[in-house]
Amino acid sequence: MKVGLFIPCYINQLYPQVGIATLEVLEKLGVEVDYPMGQTCCGQPLGNSGYESDSIGACQLFVKNFKNYDYIVGPSGSCVYHVKKHFDILEQTDDVKRVRKNTYELCQFIHDVLGITDLGASFPYKVGIHKSCHGLRGLRLGSCSERMDAPYSTEENLLKKVKGLELKTLNRADECCGFGGTFSVFEEAISVKMGKDRVQDHIDSEVEVITGADHSCLMHLEGLINRNKQPLKVMHIAEILNSTL
User: Fold this and answer.
1) What positions does the domain Cysteine-rich occupy (predicted)?
2) Global model pTM greater than 0.90
3) DSSP annotation of 33
4) Element (H, E) at 192
5) What's the distance, Cα to Cα, between the start and end of the chain in Å?
6) Which of 79, 85, 76 lies closest to 218, judged by CA?
7) CB 180: neighbour CB atoms within 10 A?
8) What would the mean pLDDT of 213-222 be, rounded to a whole number?
């Protein structure tokens, strides 16, 4: 199979190490990976803010860049969810349908498409997972507390196979962090309080490293942690799955 690597804007600009880790993990698994140099934003920020019609050009460009790959894989649940669910604003050509169907979040691709759970990683730390809303409730990367599903978690299944990693149980395992893209700008006070609650849950659970599959949420939590000088490190799950400590 040939995979097109989709790296979201904020990872490209602020967390390039996450993009590198994603590429290295896929290559370790024997996947042929290509990075379309013409890729830009998938259009999610505009869509989330109510300007879907203004995002059409970005969505069309995404399809143009990725239409010839067997799969499109990215380290961001929210961006992948946007492609799969909100590219319905485009004319549903064969290319659009194929791109929407074949776009996967990294953990989902490894777990569900490749059928792999043990990547041979090692990471001897106490880890807590922040399960982002788009990944959990949109892509169904796991069961959530408001539904009566049997418990499961794609991220947990992968992390439980990491040597030395101690996965900690949180008190409110699937609560929103309050980021929500522009929500954190327009409703700053509520967003900050929600984020502080999530950070405190990890501290109370004796977590050393917070991880997750959506670095936009992790960016929000990391900002709060750094401003409040709290004893927590934040890492994208791709970085942990790529670790051999």
Assistant:
1) 3-83, 127-221
2) yes
3) E
4) helix 188-204
5) 30
6) 76
7) 21
8) 92
